[in-house]
Amino acid sequence: MEEDVKEGASDKYSLRGRVFSRLREDILNGKYEEGVELREIAIGEELGVSRTPVREAFRQLELEGLIRIIPNKGAYVVGISDKDVRDIYILRSRLEGLAARWAVDHITKEQLEEMEENVYLAKFHTLKGHTEQIFELDNRFHELLYEASGSKILEHQLKDYHQYVLRIRKKTLSSKARGPQSNLEHEAILEAIKNKNPDDAERLAHEHMINAYKNMIDNGLIKPEEK
Amino acid sequence: MEEDVKEGASDKYSLRGRVFSRLREDILNGKYEEGVELREIAIGEELGVSRTPVREAFRQLELEGLIRIIPNKGAYVVGISDKDVRDIYILRSRLEGLAARWAVDHITKEQLEEMEENVYLAKFHTLKGHTEQIFELDNRFHELLYEASGSKILEHQLKDYHQYVLRIRKKTLSSKARGPQSNLEHEAILEAIKNKNPDDAERLAHEHMINAYKNMIDNGLIKPEEK
DNA sequence: GCCCGTTTGATTGTATACAATAATACACGT
DNA sequence: ACGTGTATTATTGTATACAATCAAACGGGC
């Protein structure tokens, strides 16, 4: 039962890793609002650890831009704004297109099989309205796409963005209309990859993101770009 | 003489910040080769600090993917491969295109003026063959473009990539042919932004990266994609 | 001689102690 | 009453002490 062989820089078994993951989720889920000050001792007591792992987690969160540390003063939550979310979707639309294009040449047999299984399972859970499973399968589909791109850099980047918009994605996929439509689009991307058609793969993955973006706006999940 | 008002998460006045910057440069410049083990105490002694700031720097480097930390074992240099560099240039070609497009609408008068000055100065230093200044001006031109995009997310991302390929860029810009050509391309991008032409701006910024990419390959600075 | 368990050393993970810094409160003088 | 300088306190920055873990050396049994 080998488990967690990769574990990309989060390390859920160390205190520091747990503090980092927890704080990150809490910020991305909106538990800590913009501008809130995070005190090392308070966070440490809340999670039952000393300042050391908390500090290390803070430094990582700062690098990700989720908090801002002012030297000798404190750590303040930055979080992500509606504009950030919109920007991320535009960036993702371009980069996921690239990932799909590259995946055509680099996907392994195992990855392809898991993708097919993923789409098949998602169809089932969509019918049943199992939102939690739909969310997890959507997560996995995109992760698979990133891994299949064969680019460590691109994979790393897209996984970050994927995490960042976690809260909004949860809402989006729960919608009666978007959930099923999203899975149909996954299926189309998968078909293009199977058929070794990079242009279609890129275009479909690009459109997939644009559609998700439009859905967000149309359902008022985030406010549209002001001009 | 206000200085370092922004200081994006590096903090050069704390020990941790200095250790981080130093290690990052050393890895990106190739001082520490792939697979080398970094010991907290050794690095600490080398830089005259204790383990604490070194550990915090390690955690940040891990998040950036420049080292890999195996729990209870050690930290190993990952660095960036030739493939990573190639991938980054492809990603940059797309994202810098986007930055240039967005800059058309978001650039401030001050940023525009500094860009014009930048291009003008670069022309001078190119004639004189001042490679160090050319490098700094190239740095600044791209940073300005990122800032002018008006997107915190995109700016953050592109600055990271820009840092990552620092070593290769130093070599590239020193070449007799690429230095002047690069500046001409900067000028063209600037013109498109001034003329409020997003399509041209995007296309030119995209081509600028592709040209830099081709130059790298043609001059044997990195090995081409194997197929 | 080889295999396997134990011991030992080195290194990281965590907690705490101490130093430096910054914000606030307070007292003093005007 | 107001401003200024100082003292106090809270918080972060850094160093060190201790615990846990891993790996390699060692030694006994076969």
| Annotation, overall tally of beta strands of chain A | 3
Tell me which protein chains meet in the greatest interface and how many residues each side has: A-B, 31 and 31 residues
User: Counting H and I runs of at least 4 residues, what is the number of helices of chain A?
Assistant: 10
Structural class by SSE content of chain A: mainly alpha
- The general outline of chain A is globular
- Low-pLDDT runs of 5+ residues of chain A are 1-7
Estimate percent helicity of chain A. Answer: over 70%
Order of helices and strands of chain A: HEHHEEHHHHHHH
Radius of gyration of chain A: 19 Å
- Name the beta content range of chain A: under 5%
Oligomeric state, counting identical vs distinct chains: homodimer
Care to give the gist of this entry?
The first copy, chain A, has 227 residues and is mainly alpha-helical. The first copy, chain A, has helices at residues 15-28, 40-47, 51-64, 82-106, 109-128, 131-148, 152-164, 166-174, 178-194, 198-218, and strands at residues 37-38, 67-70, 74-77. In chain A, 70% of the residues lie in helices and 4% in strands.
